[in-house]
Amino acid sequence: MSSILVIGGDRLGNIVDLLRGQGFKDIHHVTGRKSSQTGVKIPAGIHMILVLTDFVNHNLAKTVKNQAKDRELPIVFCKRSCSAIAKAFDLTA
After folding, report:
1. DSSP secondary-structure letter at 73?
2. CB 16 within 8 A of CB 27
3. pLDDT of amino acid 74
4. Which of 9, 19, 75, 87 is geometrically suited to a Cys-Cys bond with 68, CB 3.0 to 4.6 A?
5. Along the chain (93 residues), what's the average pLDDT of each consecutive run of 10 residues?
6. What does the alpha-carbon distance between residue 26 and residue 20 come to, in Å, rounded to a whole number?
7. What is the pLDDT of residue 92?
8. Residue 27 β-bridge partners
């Protein structure tokens, strides 16, 4: 895997280092703060989607989930913390 789309969170901080350690080279980020972002399209070349549940609204999460399902992309939902993300990746690996 080389590309991941992160949905939610204003800043990623240490999460970028964690994702790079998991083997992701390209990290795309959508904050989900603006109402115009609820219609976000998953870019081409994305291999996985990470949704930070405590920083995203239900409509955006539903839109991304449906797009991921249509494109058969793995999607992970978790809280915005390095430990929660690491645990989620351990469970999906």
Report:
1. -
2. yes
3. 94
4. 75
5. 88 92 92 75 92 85 92 93 88 63
6. 8
7. 65
8. 4
Comparing CA positions, the residue from 44, 58, 70 lying closest to residue 7 is 58
Size (the chain), residues: 93
**Largest Cα–Cα distance of the chain, in whole Å?**
33
Q: Round to whole Å and give the CA distance between 78 and 70.
A: 21
> Which DSSP helix (H) or strand (E) runs through 86?
helix 82-92
Among 1, 2, 6, 4, smallest CA distance to 61 is for: 6
Per the listing, tokens 């409509």 go with 59
Do the beta carbons of residue 7 and residue 56 sit within 8 Å? yes
Question: What is this structure's pTM?
Answer: 0.89
